[in-house]
Please model this.
Amino acid sequence: MMKPESYRDIDFSSLSRKERKHLLNKVRDSQIKKAPKVYQRSAAVEAACDRAISEIRDTTGETISRALATRVISGVRTKINGKWLRGASSGEVFSAAKKLDSSQILNRVARLADMARLRAINVIK
Model:
């Protein structure tokens, strides 16, 4: 590739307006054309995205993008407008279950063990 300094100067003043326009169109046509990136999704996925977008708009008042809708219908927990949501492949949107930390889980196991112990005592009596 030639460096810009090595290009020779070309005088376009001798060309008519029509010739300059024709030359410019030839240069533009020879360049590589970039098309916008288009993702191919099936009709079922597009329908699920539409359903998820409308349900989220109804529940949270927030309009989301198709990319986020695709993420939601894949089952990923997503926080939208302060609410944790997840979706199904059909486009249905559900509120996501709260995450439990280990102490909450252990407390629940302890309560269940106490209840089992009390039942065992009541059965023996």
About this structure: The beta strands are 78-80, 83-87, 93-95. The CA atoms of residues 59 and 105 lie 30 Å apart. The radius of gyration is 32 Å. The longest strand covers residues 83-87.
